[in-house]
Amino acid sequence: MKSLGSIRRSFEPWNDPSQKPYIAFENITKKFGDFVAVKDLTLHIFQREFFALLGGSGCGKSTLLRMLAGFENPTHGEILLDGESMAGVPPYRRPVNMMFQSYALFPHMSVEKNIAFGLKQDGMAKSEIDDRVNNMLKLVKLDQFGNRKPHQLSGGQRQRVALARSIAKRPKVLLLDEPLGALDKKLREETQFELMDLQQELGLTFVVVTHDQEEAMTMADRIAVMDLGCIVQIGTPVEIYEAPNSEFVASFIGDINLFRGEVTSANGGVVNIETPDGMVIRSESHTALQAGQKASFAIRPEKLRVSRTRPDGGVNAASGEVWDIGYLGDMTVFHVKLKNGDVVKASLLNAARTVEDPISYDEEIWVSFDADSGVVLSS
Amino acid sequence: MKIISAFTRRLVIIIPYAWLLIFFLVPFGIVLKISLSQPMMAMPPYAPTIDMADGISGLIAAFKQFSFSNYVWLTEDALYINAYISSITIAFISTVLTLLIGFPLAYGMARAPVSLRPTLLMLVILPFWTSFLIRVYAWIGILKPEGLLNQFLMALGLIDEPLIILNTNTAVYIGIVYSYLPFMVLPIYSALEKMDYTLIEAAQDLGCPPITAFWKITFPLAIPGVVAGCLLVFIPAVGEFVIPDLLGGSRTLMIGKTLWSEFFNNRDWPVSSAVAVLLLLILVVPIMIFQQAQAKAQESGQ
Q1: Which of A43, B20, B37, B196 falls 20 to 30 Å from A134 in CA-CA distance?
Q2: Is the pTM of this model over 0.90?
């Protein structure tokens, strides 16, 4: 049986009706003057979930996080944490901790004092604080740096201190605001996996805000894609990538080729879409569509095949001219200009080191794809 | 070209050093020398005067006449010691008052909307556009028994007879706090304005109520500004002459006034020079603290 869904462990509390949401945003609206940052948004996040809020700048994702931390109050609606309403609870009494985008390390305190800050605030015993701080330093591999001041650390080390400080109090929920934004690419990738391991180890609920789709895809159990203060789609990374529900989501996450046209026939889960220049695409579809309706067909570049001759039996095929070739190492991206002038992207995995007679610029080639490799989006 | 550029590079260093040498070190040397001389009914009113006409031997003869008797005199007459103590006390109290008023002012400015800050900053600096002397004179008009303040309070019915403020230490405090407030506000403002507000959010997020967050985060980060402000007020306030002379009474004892009367009324240049040298030595301590604080702030990258 074909499936989309969680590829990571069998952890799907969102599909289990008996599970109670751990964090609940109920009909949240947030206005700053006339500007509506979050619009009547309802979102449920479950315990131990690694949840990502993904969107461009100004989509309301950070506002949502700040409301959960208590720095902003919703204009309408209610936030519940573990069944308790957070209305009127100031940030210093909420069982959540935040890792700030700028890290917000206290510059006049050593690494140890930074980590111990929240524990001291809770009136924990000195010996217990020392133990916890040492554990945290070990956890983030900074045992040798306890006495340093933040300005004596590298960017990656500061990020770890910020992380250690925010989990030292064992919060019910850890909020991460663009946690890896300030790191370089290589360090970012490493840290993504470290964060995932840490979340597993501590069994905490993580809510991360990011504009980086790769970061969200790698780390999160579920992703909410946001735009203009609303959630456009919620799903596992696989669902979001393979079954986007709109052109916005499809193009926000990864590369996509879009063919806009009209449905000519729809029956038994198979639709035919005809583009204005007469190309007919046959695709499987789970959404109810009717003939005559406008629709677009979206397909990822890696699901397109390229060949010099029209493939046998392939339902969907179009010919065009190789316009650009981008060699990325692990794959090669072909930009193919179709007869109607549209440019489609097709990426080919470079599974072998050498290829005999590779496709080159200006060649006439065919791009083809199966009926089940794309999605139909009603528009 | 290379020689010229090397020369200009040196010139850049020479200018401030030459400035210090000509306008600070040489005058200080002269004052120091006068402080070691004896008063005379002559012009200039002290001896010995160094006369190059007598050559090296004359110079040595002059050096032999130098003595510390003026400094000994300062320790013997309680007037001077009292004046020093009183100056330092008045300067200290004024500094504390200025800090108590200046810190909230600077904090308010640093938290004001960004678009409003240049205006607020200008309002703080605005009094400098009027002469310092005129502003102190204006306070006489406000504080005198039949002045604006008393008229206002009596019109309100708060008091029945005028408050005697002018010619008391209170008037001196008012004058010093008013005149030196910008020197307190500006460094504190600059320290607070640089501070990242997310630090306060982080502190609150970790369980600090706002007041605790202020004392644990905001205040420690403002300390370089507070130290700078306090010294910028304290150091000139110790030697302040105009404000105690115009607003203070006959019983307001400050070293600046003592120095003035020694110099002009008694025409005792050597003693007044000794007073000035001793004042400088007293102030060297806070100046050193100031420099150390500056160096420390720079080191921690703030």
Answers
A1: B196
A2: no
- Domain annotation covers residue B116: yes
Nearest CA in chain A to B209: A92
No. of helices (H) and no. of strands (E), chain B: 15, 2
Residue A377 backbone phi and psi in degrees, to 5: -115, 125
User: CB-CB: which of A98, A107, A121 is closest to B302?
Assistant: A107
We report the CATH number of the domain holding residue A349 as 2.40.50.140
Whether A97 sits inside 8 A of B205 (CB atoms) is yes
**Sheet with strand A343-349: strands edge to edge:** A305-307, A364-369, A316-327, A331-338, A343-349
Question: For residue B57, what are the CA distances in angstroms to B38, B46, B129?
Answer: 20, 20, 53
Kindly state whether residue A6 falls inside one of the protein's structural domains: no
Burial of A313 (0-12, 13-18, 19+ CB in 10 A): exposed
Give first-to-last CA distance, chain A, whole Å. Answer: 29
Q: Do B202 and A108 touch (CB under 8 A)?
A: no
Q: Number of structural domains, chain A?
A: 2
Distance CA A376, CA A101 (A): 37
Domain ranges, residue B120: 70-299
Token pair of A276 as six digits: 């204005």
* pLDDT above 90: percentage of residues in chain B: 56
Q: Is A362 on the interface with B (CB under 8 A)?
A: no
The CA distances from residue B209 to A118, A166, A174, B193, B254, in Å, are: 12, 17, 20, 21, 45
In a domain, B56, yes or no: no
Mutate to test the interface with A, among B199, B200, B206, B214 (most CBs of A within 10 A): B206
Give domain status of residue B3, yes or no.
no
pLDDT at residue B249, rounded to an integer = 81
- Domain of A206: which CATH number? 3.40.50.300
pLDDT digits (tens, 9 = 90+) for A157-176: 999 999 999 999 999 999 99
What would the pLDDT profile of B85-128 be if each residue is shown by its tens digit? 999 999 999 999 999 999 999 999 999 999 999 999 999 999 88
B198 — contact with chain A (CB < 8 Å)? Answer: yes
Q: Give B235's contacts (C-beta < 8 A, 6+ positions apart).
A: B283, B286, B287, B290
Q: Reading across the β-sheet that carries A375-378, which strands appear in turn?
A: A280-284, A270-274, A257-267, A294-299, A375-378
Rounded-to-integer distance, Cα B254 and Cα B245, Å: 9
The count of CB pairs under 8 A between chains A and B is: 64
Q: Which of A250, A279, A295 is the last residue of a domain?
A: A250
Asked if residue B50 belongs to a domain, the reply is no
Distance CA A42, CA A32 (A): 19
Which chain B residue lies closest to A104 (C-alpha atoms)? B199
Contacts of A169 in chain B (CB under 8 A): 206-207
pLDDT in tens, A239-276: 999 999 999 999 898 899 999 899 988 887 888 888 88
Count of structural domains, chain B = 1
Q: Is residue A4 part of a domain?
A: no
Q: How confident is the model at residue A186 (pLDDT cuts 50, 70, 90)?
A: confident
Contacts of A96 in chain B (CB under 8 A): 205
Q: In this complex, which of B199, B204, B302 lies closest to A92 when CB atoms are compared? A: B204
Residue A202 lies in a domain: yes
Chain centre to alpha carbon of residue B155? 37
Q: What is the DSSP letter of A107?
A: T
Phi and psi (nearest 5°) for A140?
-100, 15
Domain boundary among A191, A215, A250: A250
Pick from A151, A149, A106, A148: nearest CA to B221:
A106
User: Across A171-293, where does the E strand assignment appear?
Assistant: 173-177, 205-210, 222-227, 230-235, 257-267, 270-274, 280-284
